[in-house]
Write a structure and sequence with these properties.
Layout (H helix, E strand, L loop, with lengths): L1 H15 L9 E7 L17 H4 L4 E10 L4 E4 L2 H4 L6 H6 L9 E7 L10 H7 L1 H18 L3 E5 L26 H4 L5 H19 L5 E6 L5 H4 L2 H4 L5 E4 L13 E2 L17 H10 L7 E6 L1 E7 L11 E2 L15 E3 H9 L7 E3 L8 E5 L9 E6 L2 H13 L4 E5 L16 H8 L2
Parallel strand pairs: 1-2, 1-16, 2-4, 4-5, 5-6, 6-7, 7-9, 9-16
Antiparallel strand pairs: 2-3, 8-11, 10-12, 10-15, 13-14, 14-15
Bound molecules: 2-acetamido-2-deoxy-beta-D-glucopyranose (2 copies).
Length: 433
């Protein structure tokens, strides 16, 4: 009891002094609000957030975007976000009445904003006028809807997939635009890097007196050394959320499946990135450990196995493109954790064999091999489950980092269909922090 009292006093003193009460145990939970539009068991209602919000320290609402013609921050889905029908912006920030310690941020970008002919995330940072206009529009949104901060999940152009002998389909065709996602060569890299640094500095200068936070989400495949001047950014950021996952996706390497989100480089191959490499990069650039938050995906990446695939299932494995879509998420090449989990216990045809990760380095995978009797294709899925999410949280703790970021709530098992507990990935990771 006395210990608890002292702890409470310590927390309140910390709050008054402006010290981050969650310096090492941030549990940042992203929510893709468009998951409301799924049908059946995948449909995520605002009340489904509640069991998670008892565990999350921060809720990040995904996603707002940039209006291309005026370069201002704006709701991407006015009907859901701010419209008379649902008004999710208001409803999420009102969750603070039930969870008084919760901070709710509005995230801008997140690869949810459609790519257009002009790369608005680049042109916006080029001039002080455009930056100021954007900053004012973001502040208006925060004030009007009572958000506690803004998260910049800035859609810088992603790097090309590394060329590899024997890999034919190494083209990212997930997003179609004249820039050809992953093919675009930015001739003004330095200008964009400096412009973004100035945007962050000026935005934070407006947020600081309002007592609102500013975080950066580093999206997968964005080359941090090109676009982020980490040394100059850190003093103006409350946290950097590293989305070190999707290192392998069926769009980028359709003919070869591999661990999509390993903590360390997998044995015998050179990945473009992994959690540890990303963390070490930001630490080496003098980012305080307490500001580095490690992203954990709640979805798996899937590929189709054929008669050419090795029957062992061991990655890297020969495949032919994305695996079939799941019943709830309906996105080829992706399965949510409950969609995977349902197929681990399946007794008939769809059953997957799970291979865990005793090394605690790479993540889990599960697969169903090609069936030569019936000549039916199989599937391979690489994913984080509660065990491997716990390994990532243990890594964060051992390194003294700021915490974890769950991407995202609607693909965790929010109904508790796997083992009865809702949000098992959020929960398992938080227990290890
Ligand atoms: C959010 O969910 C919707 C509906 O399933 C999906 O179409 C969209 O791709 C998701 N967005 C992100 C950024 O994950
Ligand atoms: C990121 O950019 C740096 C500097 O241009 C380059 O050396 C590095 O190879 C790039 N990384 C990737 C994965 O393309």
């Amino acid at each position: 009891m006395r210990g608890l009292l002292l702890a409470l006093i310590a927390v309140s003193v910390g709050l008054c002094a402006g010290v981050d009460p969650h310096e090492h145990n941030k549990i940042v939970c992203y929510w893709n609000s468009t998951s409301f539009e799924r049908t059946g068991a995948g449909k995520f209602n605002i009340d489904d957030l509640k069991p998670a919000l008892g565990m999350c320290t921060h809720l990040v609402y995904g996603f707002a975007g940039i209006k291309a013609d005026i370069l201002e921050a704006a709701p991407l889905r006015p009907d859901l976000d701010t419209g008379a029908g649902y008004g999710f912006y208001k409803l999420v920030t009102q969750m603070k009445r039930i969870f008084p310690d919760l901070k709710v941020y509005l995230s801008i970008g997140g690869n949810a904003d459609p790519y257009e002919d002009t790369h608005k995330y680049l042109t916006l940072v080029e001039t002080p006028e455009a930056r100021t206009k954007f900053i004012n529009s973001a502040i208006r949104l925060l004030n009007e809807y009572d958000f506690d901060g803004v998260d910049l999940a800035w859609q810088f152009p992603p790097v090309r997939v590394a060329k590899k002998r024997g890999t034919l389909g190494s083209i990212w065709h997930g997003i179609k635009s004249t820039f050809g996602y992953g093919k675009f060569k930015d001739e003004k890299e330095e200008e964009h890097r400096n412009g973004f640094t100035n945007l962050v500095r000026d935005l934070k200068a407006q947020l600081r007196p309002r007592n609102k936070a500013l975080t950066l989400t580093v999206l997968p495949h964005v080359n941090a050394s090109v676009y982020y001047d980490a040394r100059l950014l850190a003093p103006n950021l409350d946290a950097v959320h590293l989305m070190a996952f999707d290192q392998r996706t069926p769009e980028r390497t359709p003919k070869e499946a591999d661990y999509p989100a390993p903590i360390y480089e997998s044995y015998g191959r050179i990945l473009q990135d992994n959690v540890d490499a990303s963390v070490r990069y930001w630490l080496a650039q003098s980012t305080p450990g307490g500001k580095i938050v490690v992203g954990i995906p709640t979805f798996g990446r899937t590929w189709t196995l054929t008669s050419d695939s090795q029957i062992s299932g061991v990655p890297p494995i020969v495949t032919k493109g994305p695996g079939a879509e799941g019943p709830h998420t309906a996105i080829p090449g992706l399965l949510s954790y409950p969609e995977i989990c349902a197929r681990l216990t399946e007794t008939h045809v769809g059953r997957l064999r799970r291979v865990g990760d005793p090394s605690k380095k790479y993540g889990s995978y599960a697969y169903q091999p090609y069936n030569s009797d019936t000549e039916t294709d199989g599937i391979w899925v690489g994913y984080d489950d509660p065990d491997t999410a716990g390994n990532k949280a243990s890594y964060v703790k051992a390194k003294g980092l700021g915490g974890i970021a769950i991407w995202e709530l609607s693909t965790d098992d929010f109904r508790g269909t796997c083992n009865g507990d809702k949000f098992p990935i959020v929960n398992a990771a938080r227990m290890k922090l």
